[in-house]
Amino acid sequence: MAKSAHKNQLAPGISRLSRSKVFSKRAAYKIVKDGKAKVAETEKPKKAEAPVSERSDLVKALTAESNSVYPVSTIPKSKAGRKAIRAPKLRQSITPGTVLILLAGRFRGKRVVFLKQLKSGLLLITGPFKINGVPLRRVNQAYVVATSTKVDISGVKIDAKVSDEYFKGEKEAKPKGDEEEFFGKDAKKKEHPAHKIADQKVVDKEIVAAVAKVPFLASYLASSFSLSKGQAPHTLKF
User: Fold this and answer.
1) Rounded to an integer, what distance in angstroms lies between the CA atom of residue 203 and that of residue 196?
2) Using CA atoms, how far apart are residues 112 and 144, in angstroms rounded to an integer?
3) 35-65: per-residue pLDDT in tens?
4) Whole-number Å distance between alpha carbons of 137 and 171
């Protein structure tokens, strides 16, 4: 007894165990003070349910008891965006007729003529196609370099139909995936729409006439931009 009492003390008079721990070790909760056995709680009488014919989903929903336990995992809901989509402002260095250098895409390195900014914020440009092979296209102003060279396009009239909807691709029938469809006699080459070819000619006719008035401008647009060894782009004056 002395050993066990000594083990349970940190110092003389200071117990190592708390009062609740001592209560648990002694199993004092099992001792009934009144000398009467604990009476099991009587089960609550079940409510009499109505016949099946009288019950319905609506009655069950109205009479159902509210559950105080919520699910552990909840599905997050995305918040609705409040920012309106607006077209970016046009850079001050880009004005109608400015010659731009494309930095990305199929025609990177080509010099093109800027026509106008569309509602989406993209730039409408042309080569012209007759000079350097660049058709009417839309480009992002983040991927162009504006030069100090300009073409007088004050007399060029751009049709109002040349907008963002103008460049949307037409729906085509899905291919079957047969070998004959791609390599056989029935294989068809994708052709450019005839109305777009006609629009390109109308726009280029006036721009080419304006380019011809300035010496060496046609050859300047036909040449591609590139950096040679030792050239730093930030030191160049475009």
Assistant:
1) 11
2) 10
3) 554 545 555 666 666 555 555 666 666 666 6
4) 19
Q: Rounded to an integer, what is the distance from CA 19 to the centroid of its chain?
A: 62
- Mean pLDDT rounded to a whole number for the chain: 79
What is the distance, to the nearest Å, from the Cα of residue 59 to the centroid of all Cα atoms in its chain? 46
- How many angstroms separate the CA atoms of 115 and 136, rounded? 10
When pLDDT is cut at 50, 70 and 90, the band that residue 181 belongs to is low
Residue 100 neighbours by CB distance under 10 Å: 23
- For the chain, how many helices (H) and strands (E)? 7, 7
> Residue type at 214?
V
pTM score: 0.59
Give the start-end residues of each E strand in 77-143: 98-102, 111-117, 123-126, 137-139
Contact of 67 with 61, CB cutoff 8 Å: no
- Are the C-beta atoms of residues 55 and 47 closer than 8 Å to each other? no
pLDDT at 110: 93
What does the block give as tokens for 67? 């559950």
Specify the amino acid at residue 87.
A
For CA atoms 132, 137, 143, 146, give the dihedral sign. Answer: positive
d(CA 55, CA 175): 56
Residue with tokens 């080509």, as numbered in its chain: 110
Contact assessment for residue 81 and residue 197, using Cβ atoms and an 8 Å cutoff = no
Residue 27: both structure tokens together? 């199993």
Match 């073409």 to its residue by tokens: 151
Which residue, 151, 145, 143, 149, is CA-closest to 204?
Answer: 151
